[in-house]
Design brief:
Blueprint lengths: L1 H71 L14 H24 L9 H16 L3 H14 L6 H39 L8 H4 L10 H45 L4 H16 L10
Helix pairs in contact: 1-2, 1-5, 1-7, 1-8, 2-3, 3-4, 4-5, 5-7, 7-8
Length: 294
């Protein structure tokens, strides 16, 4: 009996020691989670910037290819030139660059080894973001700019709360723009299919066509129809690669919002780390090396 009592006491001591060590490590674990969240958010911003740059290329290529298909199908002999750059897209990329600076300052403040006392560098970085928010044609951004400014003008404030607002705003910006792009891409792809299908058979040279159709077909009609389907499939694969990367960024941002919310509510750090790993995996799945259409 005495031996059993001794074992119980020893076990209790081990559990108490482990619990104490866990409590002692909790602040460090939370700090590490904040830094990981900031690092993954920077990667998300990098991928988002690539998408915003890529959408200009996709839009312009769609215009050129659709115009060519329409000319060949005798539907439209006129081509309306498109602008080379999109100022609204460039404005968002500028915002993402300012986000990176704010995240850098946030990481310095939350680092376990940090001895920084002043919030000014982080506040200034956030103020630059809100200034950009105010120039955007979006009432929601204006509203959030006011909320953030109400925090950063205080002498002391919760930097985690400000970062939480910024990350959630990043998700809102992305969701709105992604929806607009998807509508544009769907409409453009539908128009492209229609134009390609309406190209008359006599617009094709059978001898040249045979060099581009790899299926074992014979006869001009079969070659023409196969070539049209190949064009449509190539366009689909190109656009789908873009959309897949877009979807992965959407997933990562959703996790980042949940992570930021969880850090404010002192949720389980292990669960937060798992969500950070999921966000990292989603971003790594993005592929910006899609083959250009010939």
């Amino acid at each position: 009996m005495k031996r059993i009592t001794t074992l119980i006491i020893a076990a209790a001591a081990i559990v108490s020691t482990a619990a104490l060590q866990s409590c002692n490590n909790a602040p460090y674990q939370k700090t590490n989670a904040k830094n990981r969240m900031a690092s993954v958010t920077v990667q998300a911003l990098n991928n988002m910037s690539e998408i915003y740059s890529e959408i200009e290329e996709v839009a312009i290529k769609n215009e050129f290819d659709n115009a060519l298909a329409n000319v060949l199908s005798h539907q439209d002999a006129n081509y309306n030139p498109v602008v080379v750059t999109n100022e609204e897209l460039r404005q968002k990329i500028d915002i993402f660059n300012l986000y990176r600076i704010a995240l850098h300052e946030y990481t310095k403040l939350t680092s376990a080894e940090s001895t920084l006392k002043s919030l000014s560098p982080f506040s200034n970085a956030c103020a630059n973001i809100t200034s950009k928010f105010r120039t955007a044609n979006d009432s929601t951004l204006h509203e959030k700019a006011n909320i953030i400014n109400s925090y950063i003008t205080s002498q002391r404030y919760n930097t985690d709360k400000v970062m939480n607002i910024l990350i959630n705003m990043l998700d809102e910006i992305w969701q709105k723009d992604s929806k607009d792009w998807n509508n544009l891409l769907n409409e453009s792809f539908a128009n492209y299919q229609l134009a390609v299908n309406n190209i008359p058979e006599d617009s094709f040279n059978e001898e040249k066509l045979a060099k581009y159709v790899y299926q074992p077909y014979d006869g001009k009609t079969a070659l023409v129809e196969a070539y049209k389907l190949n064009l449509i499939k190539e366009r689909y694969d190109y656009v789908r690669g873009f959309v897949n990367s877009q979807d992965n960024i959407t997933t990562a941002l959703k996790y980042l919002c949940e992570i930021s919310n969880a850090l404010l509510k002192a949720r389980d750090v292990e669960e937060i780390d798992n969500d950070i790993s999921k966000a990292e995996a989603a971003l790594k799945a993005c592929d910006f090396g899609q083959k250009e259409l010939e």
